[in-house]
Amino acid sequence: MTRxxxxxxxLARHNAAAVCLSINSLDAELARVLEPRAxxxxxxxxxxxxxxxxxxxxxxxxxxxxxGLNDHExxxxxxxxxxxxAKWVGxxxxxLPFAVAPLFEQWLERHAPLRKENVLSRxxxxxxxxxxxxxxxxxxxxxxxxxxxxSQMFHVARRKAGLAEDGPELSTTxxxxxxxxxxxxxx
Length: 187
What we know:
Mean pLDDT: 94
Distance between the termini: 37 Å
Number of domains: 1
Radius of gyration: 19 Å
Low-confidence stretches: none
Shape: globular
Strand content: 5-15%
Number of helices: 7
Largest sheet: 3 strands, parallel
């Protein structure tokens, strides 16, 4: 995204662009094993700062929040993204649908074997005893005491950092529809 900062900045001047990045941890080692080929937390924070300084509205999604593994980092992540220039923040709690569940269990066994049972137990506590709950409105946050704790920690940290819950209302008024036959479907 940073390589397109000039385009994004121009679009942002017309209220026609915003950027949202995900940051799930500030622990570089944990982030590396969670997302091996993704940008480091430091690089993501630098991207937030660069985009924000260029006038691009930037938000951050704290995701995935993994109870018992990175949930304790929520306040630090939110404070860091606010300092870097983010304007809003959201969250997604881990869900483990279908083939993802056994892969994540293997990942835990390899990278966090002492935490494996605790993490899976908390995920099940969020998901009515299962590793996934596909119900709309529940699947991204969970239910129960751990979901409530995560939500409260998130909202307190968000308010303390002065960040909004949602990104800006974007506009298409500056866009022009191209003329000519190129876009005609001929149906």
